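Lab notebook page, bench 4
Experiment: in silico fold of construct C2
Operator: M.H.
Input chain length: 155 residues
Purpose: comparison with the prior construct
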Amino acid sequence: MPYVNQKRQLSYWRTYNANRREAQILYMASYAKQPHAIEAHKEADDRWKAKWPLRRMLRVARYRAKQAGLEFNITEMDLSPPTHCPVFPEIELKYTNHGRGDQAGASLDRKDNSKGYVRGNVVIMSLRANLLKNDGTAAEHRAIANWMEAAFGIG
């Protein structure tokens, strides 16, 4: 049976739902600060990272590209995750459950830093290789290698 005054009924439910929504937001905000909720959220986040390591890598890269105003057009299909670092083949890459500073953790690197995260400009390598490559040019890296060989006999 239809309501006698539909406008009045609709107005009532809109107000009622708005009040409930505000109460729910306040409840969830207080709940989220409780230790067991924080731990549960962290565990759920860790499970998501373990299940979707490439998605996480792309999500972080998309965020960095947006912050820096760079182009971003890569997808999971554009990446072929290697098992070992292409720069240091002795390092087996970790895609899941690695700490932020883990040198064997997989890292997304741009070949040409003037371009964004676009197809053909990204490669997955170890964090160690990416940090070493971070700011230097090939000539600078060769100069360091030559100096190390001459000074320490390392080669």
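Observations: The chain has a mean pLDDT of 87. The CA atoms of residues 128 and 145 lie 16 Å apart.
Next step: discuss at group meeting.
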